[in-house]
Design brief:
8 strands; 25% helix; Aminopeptidase; 8-stranded mixed beta sheet
């Protein structure tokens, strides 16, 4: 049996580093089931967004190459009705950080999960104490033609649907989801 590019590497606790935009051959050899995710990193689109201060990007990389990347940017979570009434907060729009792009090399098992778990911890520990941030959001790609629905991946991590009754397939090609960071923020405060 041939050896895979990332065989034997445990990505569950692998180091996550911020992308250096000057890095050469960024994404060379990167393979993902979605071509647009490969093009975003290989063709420099991600560098344009970083240099325009629209997003920030973090990666998992090892000697074998780029295993996965994630981008984070400012967002807001808009709900149809207030969801924090039990906390006496009567808003239906909340500050959030969005996962813009998440892509993992198909040979780098668990690297995508590692990046999302890292993002939850990073936003909870490093950003929420400086800004009012309660939620992490994502627009989970839903491509009926390619039989691709990323929402199941996020649901396993604990994300919930903004509109659980949304008619499928969604008209925008994605399902908006959110993760409540408050339990993690509270747990970090007690340490």
């Amino acid at each position: 049996m041939p050896v895979s590019k990332f065989d034997g590497i445990d990505f569950t606790s692998h180091e996550v580093i911020e992308l250096n935009p000057d890095q050469e051959n960024l994404g060379g050899g990167f393979r993902c089931s979605r071509g647009e995710f490969v093009a975003f990193i290989r063709k420099g689109k991600i560098i344009n967004e970083i240099n325009s201060h629209i997003t920030r990007c973090w990666i998992i990389q090892c000697d074998q190459g780029l295993a996965a990347y994630i981008t984070l940017l400012a967002d807001k979570l808009s709900m149809g009705s207030p969801i924090l009434m039990d906390e006496l907060v009567n808003y239906s729009t909340f500050p959030a950080v969005k996962i813009g792009w998440l892509a993992a090399d198909q040979r780098a098992s668990k690297s995508g999960t590692r990046l999302v778990e890292w993002a939850i911890e990073y936003v909870s520990s490093d950003l929420s104490g400086k800004l009012g941030i309660r939620f992490l959001t994502v627009d989970a790609l839903y491509d009926i033609d390619a039989n691709y629905d990323a929402s199941g991946f996020y649901e396993k991590i604990g994300f919930r649907f903004v509109d659980p009754e949304e008619e499928l397939p969604p008209k925008d090609g994605y399902r908006s989801m959110y993760f409540d960071l408050k339990p993690m923020i509270d747990a970090l405060k007690s340490i």
